[in-house]
Write a structure and sequence with these properties.
- Helix content is 35%, strand content 17%.
- The protein has eight helices and seven strands, in the order E-H-E-H-H-H-E-H-H-E-H-E-E-E-H.
- It has helices at residues 19-31, 42-46, 54-65, 73-76, 95-102, 109-118, 138-145, 174-182, and strands at 7-12, 35-40, 87-93, 124-130, 150-152, 155-156, 167-169.
- Strands 1, 2, 3, 4, 5, 6 and 7 form a seven-stranded mixed β-sheet that branches.
- Helix 1 links the parallel strand 1 and strand 2 (35-40).
- The longest helix is centred in the first third of the chain and has 13 residues, at 19-31.
Length: 195
């Protein structure tokens, strides 16, 4: 159990097409011994999409972690002063969340959790899923890659022919990335072929 005893926040944002895969990763982290605290964005909490209903995603988070998800900004703020987490994962991390994080905007539970957690100089792991990673969000990825205590899950172009700017993390690499990040290391290689 590689993650035994680790308190990990797991924040989900609205890349709804990847949530099913993310639920599997959450189960894996718990199976590896992590004490997982779920955090959900307003989008995950409220939007029904062709990929699933909001209430079902919330229910799965509760079932896996045995905890109610943090879903408001006031609930997320104590993560910092109470030093609740050893590591925080944002997966999937949308381009919107990425851009706000890179520019110091804190207007969602996930962003408040990140801000509160980073004040403790603990690792924040980002697993991107964005259609504009090589477009307008490229500069934000660059900003965050060089930011202390922020680590990225290896990522690549998921569909370079039809969505040339789209980048998606290899979600199955989240556990390995967390282990490296806890030691202050960025997992390598970072840029990998998606398929």
């Amino acid at each position: 159990m590689r993650l035994a005893g680790l308190k990990i926040g797991f924040a989900l944002t609205g890349s709804h097409c990847t949530l099913n895969e993310i639920v599997g990763v959450m189960k894996q982290l718990v199976d590896e011994g992590a004490d997982l605290t779920p955090i959900i964005s307003f989008s995950v909490e409220t939007m029904d999409t062709r990929f699933g209903k909001a209430k079902d995603w919330i229910s799965q988070c509760k079932e896996i972690t045995q905890k109610d998800p943090i879903h408001t900004i006031p609930q997320a703020e104590p993560i910092g002063p109470q030093k609740k987490l050893d590591c925080l994962v944002i997966a999937p991390c949308t381009g919107n969340t990425l851009a706000k994080l890179a520019n110091g905007i804190t207007d969602t539970p996930v962003l408040m959790a990140a801000k509160a957690h980073l004040r403790n100089q603990k690792p924040l792991v980002i697993a991107i899923s964005t259609n504009d990673g090589l477009g307008l969000n490229a500069k934000n990825i660059g900003t965050l890659i060089i930011t202390k205590n922020i680590f990225f899950v290896p990522f690549g172009q998921d569909n370079p022919r039809q969505k040339a700017n789209s980048l998606v993390a290899h979600m199955n690499k989240i556990p390995d990335t967390v282990i490296e990040a806890i030691q202050g290391k960025q997992i390598q290689p970072l840029l990998v072929d998606y398929h």
